[in-house]
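User: Structure please.
Assistant: Input sequence and predicted structure:
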Amino acid sequence: MRDLKGLILINAYAPSLRTHQIVRFTQEFERRGVFVEVKRNDFFPAQVSHGKIAAHLDHDFCLYLDKDKYLSQMLEASGVRLFNSAKAVADCDDKMQTHIALSDLNIPMPQTMPGLLCYDKTAKIDSSVLDHVERTLGYPVIIKQSYGSLGKGVFKADDRSALERIANEVKLTSHLFQQYIAESHGKDMRVIVVGGHAVGGIVRMSDGDFRSNIGLGAHAEKTEVPAEIKETAERAATALGLDYCGIDFLLGKQPLLCEVNSNAFFEAFEQTTGINVAGLYVEHILKTMSKKRTRT
């Protein structure tokens, strides 16, 4: 596979080409003798020209570390193998869409209601809407913006006043209302899945926040992944068509799948568990490309 040429594609506005993810992936590819180029997507690698999609890449595969759904679709249409696929990234990037995509698959998830998108900033949320939310989900209730990461855009309303305030703040963006799991306050389990296999897990815990994101100050501990959670994580990743992901579970009376992250950061995971996540993902990419070459 030494003749493979790969591309690591990141967001046009990413401040650095030397983040932990990029450094680790580059190291693991280099150890296997595979050349990868790291580029921001601001060189417009694909566009619609004369009614057809035109791409300007000569790479065999692309490790896609962005969430631009337009570019990913165009690259795939031009024949570039993306890790993860355009559809998988899009389904995970939109938190409400994730729940929809995993529905009817016997995957336990917290009760979730789509927010009502508003197009008029002067419009007021009708009291009947808030009545329905509090009647269905009770308090506290979680409000999430559908697009966001690192715990941003996630709020907790403890009463009607907070619900009304937050609902008005997010009404102009895609959002959802979700059941609050008291037993999992400030705590969840992150499971990394590579190539359909759960490779390990950590429990993330916060001392002062209902959110358990490492970026918000939570700490992580290595944990054994129960068979029930492992099986659910693998089924969810397979259903979404993911080559790689981090899946977050709320730890109540029954573990509930909360979010699926298609480009999950893994620095804390590697440090806590000693598992070479980057190496496992690179191995999956190279095996997939080898099979693709064999078929063609």
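The mean pLDDT is 93.
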